[in-house]
Amino acid sequence: MTVMLPLRVTVLDHWDDIALDLPDSTAVSVVKGEALRRAKVSQPAEAYLIKFRGAELADGETLAQAGVVPNGALIVMSRRRTPVR
Predict the structure, then answer these.
(1) Which helix (H) or strand (E) holds 63?
(2) Is there a contact between 70 and 6 (Cβ–Cβ < 8 Å)?
(3) Where are the domains of the chain?
(4) pTM metric for this prediction
(5) C-alpha span between 39 and 67 (Å, rounded)
(6) How does pLDDT run across 24-69, given as a tens digit for each residue?
(7) Is 36 exposed, middle or buried (0-12, 13-18, 19+ CB in 10 A)?
(8) Dihedrals φ, ψ of 51, to 5°?
(9) Which CATH fold topology does 4-78 show?
(10) Residue 65's closest CA among 78, 54, 52?
(11) DSSP-assigned states of every residue in 5-49
């Protein structure tokens, strides 16, 4: 049985909050790509990682496999750390 998950995804490059409503069978890579597309990020998705509750999620797993819950907050951030000046 597929469960629809309302999600909040923050893209740190732009501090945009993206609301998504996706099935729990959706791949993490699809969530990351959709959030980046909606935030109008021009960098490739491979340059970013996605985290839930502080842990990085693997692109190949589904939201259900990753343990993402309804109204879960995910963060999409650059794989490379940006220097602070």
Answers:
(1) helix 63-66
(2) yes
(3) 4-78
(4) 0.86
(5) 24
(6) 999 999 999 999 999 999 899 999 999 999 999 999 999 999 999 9
(7) buried
(8) -125, 150
(9) Ubiquitin-like (UB roll) (3.10.20)
(10) 52
(11) EEEEEEETTTTEEEEEEEETTSBHHHHHHHHHHHTT--S-GGGEE
